[in-house]
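During the reporting period the student researcher (J.K.) took over the structure-prediction task from the postdoctoral fellow and processed the backlog of single-chain submissions. One of the processed entries is reproduced below for the supervisory committee.
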Amino acid sequence: MIYLDLFLGFLKVGCFAFGGAYGAIPLIRDVIMSYAWLSDETLTYMIAVSESTPGSIMVNLATYVGSNQAGFWGAVVATVAVVLPSFFIILLVTAFLKSALKNKYVQAVLSGLKPCVIGFVLATGVYLIVQNCLSGSNGMNIDIISLVITLALAIIMIVYKHISKKKLPPIMLIILSAIVGMTVYAV
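J.K. obtained the following structure tokens:
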């Protein structure tokens, strides 16, 4: 039964996650929480780990959750389920790419989805910041260390862009965040 739950849960994520992994995090969270596969805190940590490791966040999370729930075969089932819809969509898109991109209805759908995806990404970022900077059962205790690290990283991004006239590469921000996190929380 766990294999079927993993397959259906991550198939839903694969089918309805539009706009990349950051836009999919709310859907992934809903699926994982509805099956009670991970705690909210563990999910937040796994998002950070999945972001820091090679590969898609969705695939990394599916593999981890599947492995955590049902071992090797659970990881295989969850990973296949989350990738399957994209695989078939890409096959269809490559077959009909030129005519589909010229279609005004396809363009209208894509234009309408852009603001929605931006909202999902922004909401996910705000949610993760609030969850990590506020602690306690009522969420009213401020974790000063997390807040200072978050603000410092935001300032570093802004100063870097101002000085170099380019955005800070995401990989550099991830590496910097990992180093700061290990330094502050491991000591």
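The committee noted the following: The mean pLDDT is 86.
J.K. will present the remaining backlog at the next meeting.
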